[in-house]
Amino acid sequence: xxxxxxxxxxxxxxxxxxxxxxxxxxxxxxxxxxxxxxxxxxxxxxxxxxxxxxxxxxxxxxxxxxxxxxxxxxxxxxxxxxxxxxxxxxxxxxxxxxxxxxxxxxxxxxxxxxxxxxxxxxxxxxxxxxxxxxxxxxxxxxxxxxxxxxxxxxxxxxxxxxxxxxxxxxxxxxxxxxxxxxxxxxxxxxxxxxxxxxxxxxxxxxxxxxxxxxxxxxxxxxxxxxxxxxxxxxxxxxxxxxxxxxxxxxxxxxxxxxxxxxxxxx
Length: 266
What we know:
- By secondary structure, this protein is mostly beta strands.
- It is built from one helix and 17 strands.
- The protein has two domains: 32-121, CATH 2.40.50; 128-263, Intracellular proteinase inhibitor BsuPI (Immunoglobulin-like, Sandwich), CATH 2.60.40.
- The protein has one helix spanning 20-29; strands spanning 36-37, 47-57, 63-73, 76-84, 97-105, 113-121, 128-133, 139-147, 150-151, 166-173, 179-182, 187-195, 203-209, 217-220, 225-231, 241-249, 252-263.
- A five-stranded mixed beta barrel has the order 2-3-4-6-5.
- Strand 2 and strand 3 (63-73) form a beta hairpin.
């Protein structure tokens, strides 16, 4: 099935956007992925490791790996790695969730460098999937994933782990026509997190606004994929246990995704 040139939705009636707003959103969601000191088992310098995250070109055109779950390297934890290798092949997996194998080393820059040997796009573990079949021509698949879906806010020594979990919400238009509708408010995406058991009345909620230049009209072209990220803050899931997450296009309950994730003890 064909995807759009970018991972992100085609919003509005005009040409496909560059995805800058959502790229900025994902970078903001991963802004806490800076180097943090940690006492976990460390990856030796210039060792082969496997990581999971997102490949993105930075403002200078160089590629970076953004890791929601930081990797320990030489006594520190890093959520951003410089990426080197066959960059000509990376555009096809830009901003998609990938598994990457390579050698990591500390260079002259503040962040480690990963020489990528192999990479592949994968579906995040625990991805929830919902089929939307509104008519013969209008069909879509909605997915929601927590990345990572198991994590701890702190390390065994009590220091912050540096993890920045995300909810990745996608709508893949598999129908024979564009999906075209008006949102009832200026909010495009509505998200909710609550404990799977126990105090379920305690619920964290947030919403993401639609791009102001496109208002509240949403158009997802045939074969295109609408994708957005919602960062999960610590106050959304503050204690160890399992949590349920729900994300919808605001006011459009048919386009609903659900998944679960687990907060672990250090």
